[in-house]
Amino acid sequence: MKKVKDCCYKVVKKTNGSVSCLNILGSEQMEKVKDWNYKVVEKIGQGVFGEVYKCLNLETGKKVAIKMINIQNEPEGVPSYLIAGVSLLKELEHDNIVRLLDVLTSGRYVYLVFEYLDLDLGSFIRKHTATSIRPHIKTILSQILVGLAYYHSHNILHGDLQPSNVLIDLKSKKVKLADFGLTTSFGVPHIEYSYNEVGSPYKAPESRIRSSVYSTPHDVWAVGCIFAEMVSGNPLFPCGKKDHLSLIVRYLEDMINNLFICYWQDLAEQLLGLGLEPPGVELLSQMLYLDPDLRVTANGALLHRYLRHAEDIRIAETVPLKLPSSNKPSFSQKVSEGRF
Amino acid sequence: EEFIVNIFNSEVDHQKQGSELLAKYRKLPELVTSRQEAIKWILKVYSHSQFRPETAYLSVNYLDRFLLSHSMKPGKGWQWHLLSVACLAVAAKMEETSVPNLLDLQLIEPSSRFLFKPKTVHRMELLVMSSLKWRLCTVTPFDFVHYFISKISCFNPQRDGFGSVF
């Protein structure tokens, strides 16, 4: 499930221009949402279990993401992953987590209505320079961790943390964790995870070695990767041209040998050069700790001195954020960066 | 610690519904007999298929909460049986690692009169879940038991209080 969903995100990104023609083809079943006063804007994703559409609530004027799931008429009835997943999402109510607003059913189709925000951290990082992101890193990081700590306190794993799943609300200045897939509760064995997703750069090393090990430290590792990506502007362990696994192995070898010379040292120096404070490097090393049992927890990370007073700095108080389309630094941005 | 606070809070939420339901049963005593029969069937299947006790608890919880939002006529046996099948199926899917398919589930303890198509049960499942607003993670007494047992047995010095919750 997770693997295919990742691919789909890529497909959508690549074919941004031609998405509109897909809309008309795939949205036959989405016509139904009109009855509930939603207007389909565009298709934003597709997975094995359904398609995700951006929609508009005609009553409130708010944007929502609707995930349409087709339940095949299996002898099992409504599949248990759907029952367990939706009921878990229903229990989550937190400022830093995208809300499941409604669950609608019609015939064999189930529609999950999620809160939707236009900007995700992935495009935010791509469209801004490292210097303009820097003042927001602490706030974004601490809000991600607050959301994650909430998940974990409810015995829920996010399991798929990556910048595109971190949404930013410019108006309320909130960062919200999203997962338009279905989150997993631990304690419930999940078959999906036995597939090895080599494609995800945010996956913790222990889950590559033993795919059955899947727990809260895994999410913290992913936050560490996101943290480093905010500082440098590039994925920490990029997959693609360079062999992603060999990078991780190099990193791990350093950690095992306690050498801290090669990869990690380079990385730390690079991040320090990019303006990350030494406590930040320390926190990052705790989040990327090899042994999942000794890795810092979400709550623990929030108590780290790097994030002290982070809640006092609200996003965009120092620098007004903009939607990715407008890249020009504003006057106040220049001021705060000391260019005047 | 957060975990136990959470489950206490949601327990308080659900208690309100409990008293509403009691009031409803007092007004309509004939509901009680139909309910008893439904529960009897659920418990039979539960013991035959060796489900977890949580499953039985949740099935009855879903059944009761469904009755709060829908007025079922006591006489219509098939409705009641369909409801019990759907509640048990949903609860089993929440709690069990392997769940028999909808036909086998009914055949474990065959009702003398009714056998529903999987498609029908499937629809009933959706109706039950949307009536409960998909609030299916009800706190059960077992949650408290597990928590306190883990507290008692967790004198492992390497683990702090937070770790022992999981």
UniProtKB/TrEMBL annotation, chain A:
It catalyses: L-seryl-[protein] + ATP = O-phospho-L-seryl-[protein] + ADP + H(+); L-threonyl-[protein] + ATP = O-phospho-L-threonyl-[protein] + ADP + H(+). One of its GO terms (molecular function) is cyclin binding. Its EC number is 2.7.11.22. Keywords: ATP-binding, Cell cycle, Cell division, Kinase, Mitosis, Nucleotide-binding, Phosphoprotein, Serine/threonine-protein kinase, Transferase. Belongs to the protein kinase superfamily. CMGC Ser/Thr protein kinase family. CDC2/CDKX subfamily. GO terms for biological process: cell division; G1/S transition of mitotic cell cycle; regulation of G2/M transition of mitotic cell cycle; regulation of gene expression; regulation of meiotic cell cycle; signal transduction. GO terms for cellular component: cyclin-dependent protein kinase holoenzyme complex; cytoplasm; nucleus. Pfam families: Pkinase. ATP binds at residue 67. InterPro entries: CDK (IPR050108), Kinase-like_dom_sf (IPR011009), Prot_kinase_dom (IPR000719), Protein_kinase_ATP_BS (IPR017441). This is cyclin-dependent kinase. Residues 38-307 form the Protein kinase domain. It comes from Citrus clementina.
